[in-house]
C-alpha cells in the first residue's frame, strides 16, 4: 500500500471515528467516558492523512520540477528533496523485507467496513447467555424513597434483591429496563450488559422474569418491565452466580436506549 | 551531494514488495515513470474494493446476521475503537521521542549500567498513562533512540500495568482487597525487571529487528514527525486488527463454562486465568473489573490474570511482531508468559 492509499485509509478511519464519536454509535462499543479520546484520535488520524498527502504532493512536485530541468540540474538547491526521498525510500526498502508494512496495513479496511457499513449492534442475548452473571455486591446501596413506585437500574435491583434481601423493595411496584434473553429451556431473563471499558469486557447482569410475562418474547428486544420483588432465586447455569427474580405485572417494549450498557461501575 | 545519487537500485522497488518489478538500470531517469505506474495500483485497488463492498452490502449484511457473527463483529469493533485512541497517543509520543528528543537525553536520564537501567526504566513506566497499545510504539521508539533494549523492554512490560490510571481502576474493582493493588504493582515490576535482566543475559541484538526505518535526519521536523505517525498508525494498526480478530474469535467461540471447572484446582486455575488473559486481550485499564467478576477463582489466580494481561496477549503479540519482528516476538512472548505466571504466583503467595 503506498502513501496515498495509506493517507486515504487514515482519513476514512479518522472520519469513521469522528462519526462514531459524534453520534451515539460509539456507545455500542466503548464506555461513554472514552468519547473525548475517540474524537481526538479521529482528529489526529485526519491530520495525519492530510499531512501525509501534503508532504507526498510536495515531494512529488519537487521531483517533477527536478526532472523537468534534468539537463542542468544535479545542482545545489534541488538536492534536498531528492536526498529526502532517497533516504526515505531506501529506508523503506530495507524495512519492507523485514516487516512488510504494506500488506498488514490492508487489514485496516476491515474495521472500516465493520464500522461504516455494518455498524454491529451492542452485545445482546447471545453473549449474555454464554457468559455468567456478573452481579456483585456493591459498596453500599443508596437509600430508597420511603414509599411509592420505584424505577431502578437492572443491576441495582438485582444487587438489592440478592444482597439486601429485598430490603425496602417489598410490596412496591418496581420498573426496570433491559433486553430479553431466553435460556435453553426458553425461560425468559431480562439482561443488561455492564461495561467497564469496551464491549470486549462487557458482562451481563441477569434477572429472571416470572408472573405475567408476555407470551411471546423476542430475544434482544428491549422491555420496560414493571413488577414486584420476589424472594425467588436461581443460579446462573454458566458460573453459578445468583439470579434474582421479578414478579412481572406489566411489560412494554421500548426502543434501545442510547447507551445500551450499564456503566454504573465506572462511577 | 553525491549521496543523492549513490544508493540507487534497491529503492526502486519502493514501498511495495514487488519482486516482479525489474530493477531499474539507471536510477534517475527511470524513477519517475516507474513511480507513476506503481502509484496507481494501491489507491485504485482500494477504491475498487470500497465500491465492491458498498455494492454488495446487502448480501454481506445478511451473511453477518447470525448472532455469533454479530457478537464477533461487535467485540472486534469494540476492541479497535477502544484501542485506537491509545494507539494514537502512543504513536504521537513515539514520534515525538523519535523526532524531538535527542538520543543524548536518554543516555543522561538512564544509568549507563544496563543492569541498573532496567529497574529505572521499569519504574519510569508509571508515567505513561494508558494501556498496552500505547507502550509498544513508545518502546520501539526508545530502542531506535539508542536506549538499551533490556531497559526498553522493561518499560514495555511495566508501563501498561503500573501507571496510576490502571492502579486506580484496580483499587476500584477490588474495594475489599486493597492488597491487590500492591500485589499488582509489585508483581508487574518484578516480572518486568526480570524480563529485562533475562534479556541482558540471553538476548541477542540481532533478535530485535534492526531499526530499519525512515532516517529522519535530512527531512524537516514536520515531515519526519508526521511520517513517523503515519507509519506507526498504519503499521501497528494493521497488527492491532489481527489481534482484535483473534480476541473476538476466541471470545465468541470459547464457552465460559470451561472456566468453572478450571477454578476448582488451584494450579489449573492459575494457568487457566493466564490463558484467559492472553486470549481476551482486554485493555489493562479494564481488566481489573473482569478479574473482580471471576469470583470463583482464588485471588492469586486473579493476580496472575492482572499481571499477564498487560504484558502479553494476542493483540500485544501481534503488535510486538510488527514492531520488533517475528523472531523476537516468538521468543519474547513465551518467556514473558512463563515469567509472569511465576512472578505473580510468588507475589500472590507472599502478599495475598
Automatic annotation (TrEMBL), chain A:
Keywords (A to Z) from UniProt: Membrane, Transmembrane, Transmembrane helix
InterPro entries cross-referenced by the UniProt entry: DUF1980, DUF1980_C, UPF0703_membrane_permease
Transmembrane spans: 33-55, 104-123
Keyword Transmembrane part of the UniProt annotation: yes
Domain DUF1980 intervals: 161-261
Record carries keyword Kinase: no
Signal peptide: none
Segments of this protein annotated with the region Disordered: 63-97
Name by which UniProt lists this protein: DUF1980 domain-containing protein
Organism per entry: Streptomyces griseorubiginosus
From TrEMBL, chain B:
Recorded superkingdom: Bacteria
InterPro entries for the chain: DUF318, UPF0718
Subcellular location: Cell membrane
Parts of the chain that traverse the membrane: 44-64, 76-101, 150-174, 181-200, 233-254, 266-282, 328-351
GO CC terms of this entry: plasma membrane
Membrane topology reported for the UniProt record: Multi-pass membrane protein
Region annotation (Disordered) ranges: 1-37
Record key words, sorted: Cell membrane, Membrane, Transmembrane, Transmembrane helix
Biased composition (Pro residues): 20-30
One Pfam entry name: ArsP_1
Record-stated family: Belongs to the UPF0718 family.
Name of the protein described by the UniProt record: Two-component membrane permease complex subunit
Amino acid at each position: 500500500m503506498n502513501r496515498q492509499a495509506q493517507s486515504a485509509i487514515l482519513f476514512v478511519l479518522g472520519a469513521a471515528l469522528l462519526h462514531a464519536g459524534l453520534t451515539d454509535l460509539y456507545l455500542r462499543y466503548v464506555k461513554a467516558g472514552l468519547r473525548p479520546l475517540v474524537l481526538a484520535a479521529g482528529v489526529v488520524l485526519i491530520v495525519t492523512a492530510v499531512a501525509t498527502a501534503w508532504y507526498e504532493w510536495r515531494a512529488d512536485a519537487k521531483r517533477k520540477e527536478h526532472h523537468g530541468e534534468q539537463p542542468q540540474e544535479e545542482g545545489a538547491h534541488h538536492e534536498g528533496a531528492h536526498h529526502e526521498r532517497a533516504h526515505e525510500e531506501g529506508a523503506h526498502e530495507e524495512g519492507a523485507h523485514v516487516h512488510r508494512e504494506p500488506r498488514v496495513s490492508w487489514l485496516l479496511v476491515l474495521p472500516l467496513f465493520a464500522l461504516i457499513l455494518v455498524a454491529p449492534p451492542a452485545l445482546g442475548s447471545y453473549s449474555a447467555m454464554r457468559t455468567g452473571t456478573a452481579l456483585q455486591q456493591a459498596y453500599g446501596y443508596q437509600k430508597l424513597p420511603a414509599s411509592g413506585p420505584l424505577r431502578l437500574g437492572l443491576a441495582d435491583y438485582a444487587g438489592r434483591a440478592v444482597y439486601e434481601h429485598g430490603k425496602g423493595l417489598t410490596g412496591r411496584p418496581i420498573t426496570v429496563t433491559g433486553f430479553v434473553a431466553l435460556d435453553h429451556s426458553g425461560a425468559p431473563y431480562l439482561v443488561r450488559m455492564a461495561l467497564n471499558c469496551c464491549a470486549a469486557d462487557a458482562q451481563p447482569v441477569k434477572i429472571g422474569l416470572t408472573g405475567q410475562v408476555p407470551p411471546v418474547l423476542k430475544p434482544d428486544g428491549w422491555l420496560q418491565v414493571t413488577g414486584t420483588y420476589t424472594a425467588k432465586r436461581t443460579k446462573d447455569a454458566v458460573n453459578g452466580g445468583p439470579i434474582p427474580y421479578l414478579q412481572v405485572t406489566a411489560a412494554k417494549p421500548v426502543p434501545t436506549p442510547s447507551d445500551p450498557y450499564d456503566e454504573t461501575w465506572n462511577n | 551531494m553525491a549521496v543523492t545519487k549513490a544508493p540507487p537500485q534497491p529503492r526502486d522497488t519502493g514501498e511495495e514488495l514487488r519482486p516482479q518489478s525489474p530493477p531499474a538500470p539507471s536510477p534517475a531517469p527511470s524513477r519517475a515513470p516507474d513511480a507513476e505506474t506503481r502509484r496507481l495500483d494501491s489507491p485504485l485497488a482500494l477504491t475498487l474494493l470500497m465500491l465492491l463492498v458498498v455494492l454488495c452490502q446487502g448480501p454481506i449484511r445478511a451473511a453477518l446476521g447470525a448472532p455469533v457473527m454479530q457478537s464477533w463483529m461487535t467485540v472486534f469493533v469494540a476492541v479497535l475503537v477502544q484501542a485506537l485512541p491509545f494507539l494514537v497517543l502512543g504513536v504521537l509520543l513515539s514520534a515525538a521521542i523519535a523526532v524531538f528528543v535527542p538520543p543524548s537525553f536518554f543516555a543522561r536520564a538512564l544509568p549507563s549500567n544496563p543492569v541498573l537501567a532496567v529497574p529505572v526504566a521499569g519504574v519510569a513506566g508509571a508515567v505513561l498513562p494508558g494501556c498496552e497499545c500505547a507502550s509498544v510504539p513508545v518502546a520501539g521508539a526508545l530502542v531506535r533512540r539508542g536506549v538499551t533494549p533490556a531497559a526498553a523492554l522493561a518499560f514495555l512490560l511495566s508501563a501498561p500495568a503500573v501507571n496510576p490510571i490502571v492502579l486506580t481502576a484496580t483499587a476500584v474493582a477490588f474495594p475489599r482487597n486493597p492488597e491487590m493493588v500492591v500485589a499488582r504493582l509489585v508483581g508487574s515490576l518484578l516480572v518486568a525487571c526480570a524480563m529485562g535482566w533475562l534479556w541482558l543475559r540471553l538476548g541477542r541484538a540481532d533478535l530485535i529487528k534492526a531499526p530499519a526505518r525512515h532516517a529522519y535526519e535530512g527531512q524537516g521536523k514536520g515531515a519526519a514527525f508526521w511520517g513517523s505517525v503515519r507509519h506507526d498508525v498504519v503499521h501497528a494498526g494493521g497488527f492491532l486488527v489481527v489481534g482484535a480478530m483473534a480476541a473476538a474469535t476466541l471470545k465468541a467461540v470459547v464457552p465460559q463454562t470451561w472456566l468453572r471447572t478450571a477454578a476448582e484446582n488451584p494450579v489449573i486455575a492459575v494457568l487457566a486465568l493466564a490463558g484467559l488473559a492472553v486470549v481476551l486481550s482486554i485493555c489493562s485499564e479494564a481488566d481489573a473489573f473482569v478479574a473482580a467478576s471471576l469470583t470463583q477463582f482464588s485471588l492469586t489466580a486473579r493476580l496472575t490474570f492482572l499481571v499477564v494481561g498487560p504484558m502479553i496477549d494476542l493483540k500485544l503479540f501481534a503488535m510486538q511482531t510488527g514492531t520488533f519482528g517475528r523472531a523476537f516476538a516468538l521468543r519474547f512472548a513465551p518467556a514473558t508468559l512463563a515469567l509472569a505466571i511465576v512472578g505473580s504466583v510468588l507475589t500472590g503467595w507472599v502478599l495475598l
